[in-house]
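Why does residue order matter? Because the sequence determines the fold. Keep that principle in mind as you read this record.
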Amino acid sequence: MSKIVAIGSCSTDMFFYTSKLPNPGQTIHGKQFTLDFGGKGANQCIAAQKLGADTVFIGCVGSDYFGRDIISNFERWGVDTQFISKKSVDTGVAQINVTDNGENYIIIVAGANSTLQKEDVDKAYDLLLKETSVVLFQFETPLETTEYILNKLSTANSKCCKIVNGAPAYTNSYQNILKLADIFCVNESEAEIYTNCIKKINSIESANEVLSLLLKQGCKIVIITLGSLGAVFASKDEREPQWVKVPKIENPIDTSGAGDAFLGSLAYFIVHTPNLSLYEQIRRACIIATRTVQFQGTQKSYPLKHDLPEELFN
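Structure:
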């Protein structure tokens, strides 16, 4: 039981690099356009695979060239694609606008991602039951399917670590999903939404307050990623928040996909360094995620294991 399975979204990412965002009705010149592979599920899967994990992706693509290219990309990196379903709709796409300071603004069109059904995932039931150590979920595919699989795993494979990335955030998300997850991970803006914007996160102290609010909703472990500030986390058993700091990057080039790099890396360390504390696993995942903001793109920016310091894997 050592496989990491990502159940979620895959898409074609269209990057537009520009000095600033246009105002309504305004046309501006961009600096660069690139294509990359994306979708939060695919990103997390590739991030883990590039570190050397044994990964499987479960999701949907359309019967178009975007879908064919996505499957080819998975196979190029060694991801098991046997449980990707082809649907008679368009493959998901994302428009990602990146400004000079590295910030990103994203519009996604779910396409085939919105068609992921229970029966699509049930095809991999034996794999999930007998061979899987970590499953990664996100909210870019139907929440009913996510809750269904979480329920099944909770009874059929209790040893499997279920990581739920509550992104994009929903104001009326399935409350049961938060309780079924072993780890619930969000960024600061998402965390604010899940706690009804009671508290705005603008410091470590306020992040810790929001962390406590999420634990009160029934989460077992909560991680809030804070960009350049690292992450904070706590659990129902150890409610005292812990702050994981990261090296500061002075001039980030592109922050898109860094959160997915963090989650894929965290899944890798949970499987391959089980004797480390959760603090140390998060710290190492933060280091890898921080590295990605120094490069353009999403999956293109994710490092291979041999590009990273050996001490990260000791």
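Residues 258-272 form the longest helix (15 residues).
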